[in-house]
Each structure stands twice: as structure tokens, then as C-alpha cells.
Amino acid sequence: MCGIFGCVGNNNVSSFLIDGLKRLEYRGYDSAGLCIQKSDSSFEILKSSNSNYPVAVLEKLVNSSKISGNLGIGHTRWATHGVVNNENTHPHLSYTKSVSLVHNGIVENYDDLKKFLIRNNVPIQSQTDSEIIAHLIDLKLNCKLDIEKALLSTLKMLEGINSVALMSKTFPDKIYAFSSDSSGGLIIGENKYNKFISSDSYALESFSDFINFTDKDELIVISRNSVKIINDLNSSRIPKKINVSKKPKVQKDLNGNFETNFILEKEIFEQNTILSNLINKRIFQNVEDKFPEINKHKLLNSRKFIFSGMGSSYNAAHYGSLLFEEILNIESKLEFSSELKNKKIIDPKETTLFAITQSGETADTIEAIKNCKNQGVNVIVIVEEANSKAAKISDSYLLLETGKEISVAATKTFSSTLIICLSLCIQIANLLNINSKEIVKLLKAFETLNENISKVLACCDYNYQDVSEYILNSKNVFLIGKNLTYPIVREGSLKFQEISKINSHAFVEGELKHGPNALLERKSLVFSLIGPDDNIKKSINTLREINSRHADIITISFCANDEIAELSKYNFLIESDNPYLFPILAVLPLQKLSFLSAVKSGLDPDRPKNLAKTVTVE
Prior knowledge:
By secondary structure, the chain is an alpha/beta fold. It has three domains: 3-243, Glutamine Phosphoribosylpyrophosphate, subunit 1, domain 1, CATH 3.60.20; 263-447, Rossmann fold, CATH 3.40.50.10490; 460-600, Glucose-6-phosphate isomerase like protein, domain 1 (Rossmann fold, 3-Layer(aba) Sandwich), CATH 3.40.50. The chain is 37% helix and 21% strand. Strands 3-2-4-1-10-9-11-15 form an eight-stranded antiparallel beta sheet. A hairpin with a 5-residue loop joins β13 (227-230) and β14. The longest helix is centred in the middle third of the chain and has 22 residues, at 263-284.
């Protein structure tokens, strides 16, 4: 989604702006731009929108133009208001061209404010709601308000969650910013020579020695020598500085020397090392408490668990909720965050919410967390970034420890979330003195999981290239599973949609005969996941029904079976007889196949069109 990055320094900041925008690319975007304020206070703006890699184009424009100045603001845009073109790309200028502005969010009262500006003879140049904010600020400055009062007054006029950074010709040499996000919309970074502002802490990590989070409705004023934070009562506070820990790079793959042109492929192969490290920490580490971050009293007093997320996080939440009911025999509920943010919670004091948001910035999940916390629910977030909004506002958080996932489609964060959910189950079972045979078998199975992951990722016998070609020649692609494999087929279907642009659908196996069978025909392709706890005979009957309708079948199963092999065009055999670990292994071939299908189609698997890594608007 949209990203803000600004810099004030002693020297030319254009290279900082480009590097900052590059670190925002992982969020997903369709255009990019920057504005430099030159020594005479004038603005120079560059924009790029007609490319799959707008920041790379922007970098070339910067180098060729030799643009130079000691302060500037930049932006990566994900279109909400208006088509993708340079006119709608940020930064936007106010009607007198004295204010240059970048904006994240949605102005919910956009229509009313636009009509107000038109009545005041302000010309509207773009289709965006962002431009409106620049005009409102300019109007207030023309009414002789000082800039701080003008900005605080404008902030009060905007409905919705919005974050803004701007520069002014009339009040030069400073970046001004504000956010109406109650979970913190803007972060300040500093080093010895420069000061930065961004909507994403990740964008600041490589530049800053320390960062500072700002609060809702605060006005931020950054100059070369100072940082000033003011609230709407015109009182200021001293920023609380948080040291930035420089994170080590994640090992590339099984051998540490994997080379690829695509980030997604690298991140798929990183899973072997990442999951191994996570299992050692959360399962095999020789300490009694594998999750010291969590308040055990609140956890054990919970009589109900809610799992929530969006997209891949929702699919991971589904797996987690099924685990908790099967292993712990505790009521567990699954919710889309977009629905949970408005729901009344029954017995909130006896409820724990596991909110899954890999980035920690997903707007719907953050609102769901706020809703649950306001009702008294204990909230635990499963997240990759400790300096994220979700981590800040929750009771506690568990880190996925995958390293930053750059590709838009979730791979390593998804599988790591499954491991966290499974590890949590084991920890709670220990606290409750549940010593079932299933847990004993599970712990034993973990010992060979790393070896099994290696086989699934590396084995040439799986015919990944052939199967991906077969997928592309199919008219329809369906995926079926049941119980713990159903969240996996949902995730597989999502990957085909996101990365390969294939119109795929996921169903519970038993649901096929209740409607979806009508869609089966020649050139239809069905993926069937058959796990260790499934009734193989019933699954084989379903495969026969599919075959009778002339559709083709690809199976991912846990054991060799002559009937399954006979009915399948291809059969992926995964050597795991544990019903809880089989789904984690089964998602890997689906990730690889979606990647290969995208490459064979000439698509960019790292940056699918129309998608964002982090959905920061509701």
C-alpha cells in the first residue's frame, strides 16, 4: 500500500529518498514520486507511473536531472481514488503551488471537502482525495494562519485515518507531518547527520540509529537540527528514542548459495532454514517456558480463543483455530478481521484473541484488535515486525522471525505462522498437563520435518515444471481438502490467484457434490490434498466422481496408493504421516507451482498487479 518517506539533511537527500522508496516497494504500489525543495525554496517534482518498477524509473530520472536539495518527500502510491497516471501520483501541489504533499489513507468526507473547495474557486487537478488536503492547507495559510495552526485545523477537518507529510515554500527548510491513526501512523528516524520520517519503520532501519513513534493527531516538525512534536492543545513533548537493532540477513537457502532473479523464489527456499530455527526455539529449546512473551495467567483463564486475520493470515488463523480445538479441546472461533472489528464479544474477559498480521500494519486487523481490546479481550498478535502498529497496541506479540518478506505474496510468513500456532498448542498443553499420544507423536515428527521440507523443495521427481505447464493449459482450477488441509487449499488457491492470475477456487472435499460439481468439465483441473487423518476410501470415491466428469486430477497425498496414482494425472507424495505437520509440507508444492506458472505466463511473481503487500486502508 501507499508509503511515505521524507528526509532532511546537511547534503543532497535525493539518494536517501530513492533508497527509502525502494524499502517501501515490498508493500505493493503502482506509481512513485518525490519532491525536492531546493536552496531557493522552490520545488522540483519527479513522478513515475507507466512501469512495473516505478521507483527504478524514478531513480533514473533523479540521476539524469541532477536534482538536488537538502530536504525532500517521496511516496509510493497504491491507487484508491483515481486511475494510475502521473497526474494522480504523489506528491501533489496546492493551488498556489506553495505546498507539496504526500498522503496515505482515505479522506472519507472527500466529496464534501471537494465541493467546499470548488465553491471557493479552487481548481481541482487530479482524481485523488490527497490533493484536497494540500488545497485546504493552502486556503488556511492564505487566511494568515501560521503553519502549525493551519495544519492542526486541517487535520480536524479530515474524516478517516490519514497520514500526511508536506513541505511549504512560505515556511521552508522543514518537513511537516501529521496522522489521525490512533495506532501510530508516522515514525521519525535520526542519525548523526540526517532526520527522516516514514509511514513504515522498515524503511528507516538501514538509515537510522534510533526511531520514535508518534501518536494520533500530533503535529511533527522536522528541521535539520531539531524534531518538534505538538498536540492539538499546542503543547509539545520530547520524542522518546528507540534504538534500531540491525537485523542479520536470512540465509538464502539450503546451501546458502541459491541464485534467482525472483525474490519470491528465494523466499520459498528460505523456509527450510527459517522453520528449522523457529522449531529449535519454540519446540526443542531446553527451557520450560517456550513463550515468555505471553501472560500465562490470562492465557489459562481464557475459556475461548478467537483467531483472526485477512488473506493468507486468515488461512493461517483457520489452521490455528482447528488445532486448538483438536489438540486442546478448547472452543476456538475463526473470524475475518474485517468482520471482527465491528462485533460484540461474548464473555470478553474470558477470551483471548490471536490476531495474525504478518506486517503488523493491516488496517482491518488493527481495527479488530482495537475493538476486542476495548471490550476487555486479551490480545496476542502473531507478527513479523516488532515495531509495527499491531505489536504496539496488543497485550503481547509473537515474532515470526522470518526476516522481512519482500515479495507481495506471503510464503515464509505463512508457514512460520503455522509453526507458531502448533508450538503454542504444545506449550498450552504442557501448562494444562495434557500428555496425549498425539502430542508425543507430534514432537517425534518434528525431528524429521526439516529433512521433509528439503525433499519437497528440492526433489526433481515432483515434476514441478510439467505440472505448472499443465495448470496453464487448464480452463478451471479447483482445490479440495478437508479438516486441517482445507486452510491449505484455500492458501493454494489464493497463491494461484495472486501470483499466476489463475481463476482458482477452493472447496471442502465433501462440498463438491453440493454444487461445485456443476463446474467440472474437460480441461478442468482439481488439486486434491489427502492427509493422514482423512478417510482415504471416501477421498478416492470423490476422485472417481471428478474423473467421471472428465476433469483431471493432481493429488498431494501422504502415502503411496495405487488407486490414487491411477486416478491422478500427477501425484505429489509427501512423506509425513502426522496430520498436523502434513499441511505445512503440503503448502510448499502449491507455492512453487504458483511461482512457476507465473513465470511461464510472463508475469512478475514478485509484484502482482492490483495487489499490495500491506493493506493499510479499510
